[in-house]
Amino acid sequence: MAPPAQSHRSPSPSQPSGKGEVSDLKTQLRQLAGSRAPGTDDTKRELFKKVISYMTIGIDVSSVFSEMVMCSATSDIVLKKMCYLYVGNYAKHNPDLALLTINFLQRDCKDEDPMIRGLALRSLCSLGVANLVEYLVGPLGNGLKDGNSYVRMVAAVGVLKLYHLSASTCLDADFPPLLKQLMLKDKDAQVVANCLTSLQEIWSLEASTSEEAARERETLLSKPVVYYFLNRMKEFSEWAQCIVLELVSKYVPVDSEEIFDIMNLLEDRLHHANGAVVLATIKVFLHMTLSMTDVHQQVYERIKAPLLTLVSSGSPEQSYAVLSHLHLLVMRAPYIFSSDYKHFYCQYNEPFYVKKLKLDMLTAVANESNTYEIVTELCEYVANVDIPMARESIRAVGKIALQQYDVNAIVDRLLQFLEMEKEHVTAETLVLVKDLLRKYPQWSHDCIAVVGNISSKNVQEPKAKAALIWMLGEYAQDMQDSPYILEGLVENWDEENSAEVRLHLLTAVMKCFLRRAPETQKALGDALAAGVADFHQDVHDRALLYYRLLKYDVSVAERIVNPPKQAVSVFADTQSSEMKDRIFDEFNSLSVVYQKPSYMFTDKEHRGPFAFSEELGSLSIGTEPSDGAVAAQRVEANDKDLLLGTSEKEESHGYGNNGSAYNAPSYDASTTAGASQGHFDLVSIDQPSTLHPPSSFAIDDLLGLGMPAAPSSAPPALLLNAKATIDPNAFQQKWRQLPVSLSQETSIDPQGVAGMTNPQALPQHMQGHSINCIASGGQAPNFKFFFFAQKAEGSSAYLVECVINSSSCKVQLKIKTDDQATSQAFSELFQSALSKFGST
Fold it and tell me: Which strands make up the sheet holding 782-790, listed edge to edge?
């Protein structure tokens, strides 16, 4: 029998049909190199397209590098572009290959065609090979003086690329002064904008080590330079206008008259079609009028119309970006936007992320005059087939109810949601009803009458079930079937996967028992038995707590578990006012869209020297032993990338049981097996061993009363250099290289903690002791500082990480130094200076 015929697929034009395809390309390119026959350029184009296509899909075509370079000798601009693209892709990772491109790129930088000159210069600067920087200086110098604006524009950005490759080469060639001269005299607006961008970045990076660079950076914010840019504003492209406006927002006018002059000059930018230009202009207006309350309010009124216009026009992505900024402004001045609430009604064709943000806007602008219309609109969204949208709408109604005084109509609407018999609607409404009852206990009778008709079997979501259980326990005297519903839930204890629900169930049964003991006795015994045997540490501990309270004194247990409650006046805000102000300072950036400061989402290399990486509210403070120094060999793993990062996890050395210093007594589940009729034998649990009461010193220490007095001995004889400085980047590198010399815990005077309300107080105090602050950040109760000091005689450096807990007045010190012999002396000197903070 003949073998079956093999099916052949025609190879895709973008896929090589075999291993020899790249070799064939190499051969064909070599044959065309140097050829001037008619039609050669067209053939080269087809081959170049194949090479670029293979490169794009990840096939290695670096073997044809030499042939591509040889074929680049042409005046065809399309071939040049494809060749530059290929060269730029492979030169970064193959420095040896990059060397082959230098000659032809330098030759093209002198081509008659300005487009080729510019493209060649851009490719030459984009090679990214540090060993070839000397070949960039000449072409860049010629490019900055080129007669064509496109070449000068490329050269201005090329200087910045050279600086990042080799800062010393860039500065030695005197490129920054050339850029400054070009910025102030060039006729082409785009060249001016590129020069400004490059100079801003170069001088900002150099300012920490060079006083001249710091002065030059300040000149960019001088009145003549700022007015020069403002007068040429209409010449700039939209992108360049944003750069200039960002610069203007940092300018500090001399008086109010100058502020009005600038605002009048930029008035027409508010009507610009580009949203980025409008937002950049608004940032200038807002920042310049912060100290002028009346004018600042008028600015809000003025910018309202342009922002609302941008929201209604453009793509959903643009609408979301503008809405995010509008939301920030609404949170700062809701009364100004309260009459425009209809602009925030959701459209059926908008994506969910836009709708969600509009719901936040509606809750923010709601007041006594528009609450009815807003809640009516939100109630329409509750019936939406889009379940996430319905959930968010219910939460929005709840937020409005929690911030209003007259909530009669809103409570009636929420209770109507419970009658809709939709699982997701019922779940969200139960959570909100619980919060409403905490703030408005007078509505308990109406709410409980409706909630009592809801079967616990129909509520499956943990938060909703926990809310229902809370109401069953809190209002057990008003709900006739409460003990029996709770008993049924206790019987299904093992089937409940949520620890939150089990915790609420324990508390609810306990409250119900204290009010209706005969009906709840069996349920309480079963709940305590199941809770003590629970695998979750929190549930286990709470069950033991309730058992011991009951065993000690039932009246004491009632005062602790079910005390008289006061209505909650204000619920905690998810964002502190300090955080909101920081986001406002970063107006017209991703910080507003993400609703968090930039240091929380940027990489270390882009954070800048004075920023932290993670949320400062979660700073970790290690509980390392304080009775001695840690050996230098004990370098923690997170020190490798620590410097300004605060993302390390909290460690609780020496603590077990989920971070608790207390070990619960062991419990034998068999002790409950013989409990008659399911009752819990409260005495069958082994009596825990008597715990020694803490010493009075420990109690005083907890209350902040046992603070050790400031050292009476004179500070150590170690002398520090009062003029010591260090580049933040050098500090970061040194911090990663050095091991930990000392790791200690000390205390700070409570008056010093009070003085930390001024963030500059501690750095200024330590600077008076020749210890300079390199970076700082944080929010109560955790604050983090990095200090640097240098020995007066010699170059020995001391690097300190200082983490202060303002609630406990405790300080964690981590010291690194290249002079281990003096580390203890420096530690004593540092602690001596720190102990005087607040008392001097």
Answer: 742-747, 810-817, 797-805, 782-790, 772-779
Three-state secondary structure of 288-318: HCCCCHHHHHHHHHHHHHHHHHHHHCCCHHH
Can you give the pLDDT at residue 740?
Answer: 84
519-528 in b/e form (b: 16+ CB < 10 A) is: bbebbbbbbb
Cα 53 to Cα 43: distance, rounded to the nearest angstrom: 16
Q: How far is CA 762 from the centre of its chain?
A: 26
Q: DSSP assignment, residue 752?
A: H
Tokens of 832: 């001596």
Tokens of 665: 């007594």
Q: What's the first-to-final CA gap in the chain, in angstroms? A: 104
Please calculate the CA angle 184-241-361 and round it to the nearest 5 degrees: 150
Lookup: tokens for 513: 């028992």
Cα 764 from Cα 519, distance rounded (Å): 66
29-41 burial, b at 16+ Cβ within 10 Å, e below that, comes to beebbeeeeeebb
Q: Please name the residues in contact with 736: beta carbons below 8 A apart, sequence gap of 6 or more.
A: 639, 640, 641, 642, 643
Q: Is 162:136 a contact under the CB 8 Å cutoff?
A: yes
- How far is Cα 152 from Cα 142, in angstroms, rounded to an integer? 9
pLDDT tens, position by position, 115-155: 989 998 998 888 878 788 888 899 999 999 999 999 999 99
Span 66-76, pLDDT tens digits:
788 787 777 77
State both tokens at 357: 């943000």
Reported as a single tens digit per residue, the pLDDT across 654-698 is 333 333 333 333 434 333 333 333 344 433 333 333 333 333 333
Q: Identify the helix (H) or strand (E) that includes residue 784.
A: strand 782-790
Which residue has tokens 């869209």? Answer: 593
**H or E segment and range at residue 607:** helix 604-607
Backbone angles phi, psi at 743, to 5 degrees: -135, 110
From the list 459, 387, 467, the residue with the least C-alpha distance to 421 is 459
Q: Are strands 742-747 and 772-779 parallel, antiparallel or unpaired?
A: unpaired
Other beta carbons less than 10 A from residue 713's beta carbon: 7
Average pLDDT, the chain: 79
Residue 224 φ then ψ, to 5°: -60, -40
Three-state DSSP string of 618-647: HCCCCCCCCCCCCCCCCCCHHHHHCCCCCC
Mean pLDDT of 425-451: 85
Which H helix or E strand runs over 157? helix 149-165
DSSP annotation string for 241-298: HHHHHHHHHT---SSHHHHHHHHHHTGGGGG-S-HHHHHHHHHHHHHHTTT-HHHHHH
**How many angstroms separate the CA atoms of 333 and 297, rounded?**
8
Is the separation of the CB atoms in 241 and 266 below 8 Å? no
pLDDT tens profile 341-368: 899 999 888 899 999 999 999 998 988 8
Tokens 């005197």 belong to which residue?
174
Q: How far is CA 451 from CA 88, 174, 249, 277, 519, in A?
A: 68, 77, 55, 52, 21
Q: Is the peptide bond before 665 cis (omega within 30 degrees of 0)?
A: no
Asked if residue 694 lies in contact with residue 807, where contact means CB atoms within 8 angstroms, the answer is no
135, two tokens: 């070949």
- Token readout for 78 is 């399309």
Strand ranges in 143-207 using DSSP code E only, listed in sequence order: none
Scanning the structure block, which residue is given the tokens 């080269």?
A: 44
- Cβ(827)–Cβ(779) below 8 Å: no
Cα 699 to Cα 695: distance, rounded to the nearest angstrom: 7
Q: How many angstroms from the chain centroid is the CA of residue 244? A: 26
CA-based angle 42:47:51, to the nearest 5?
A: 145
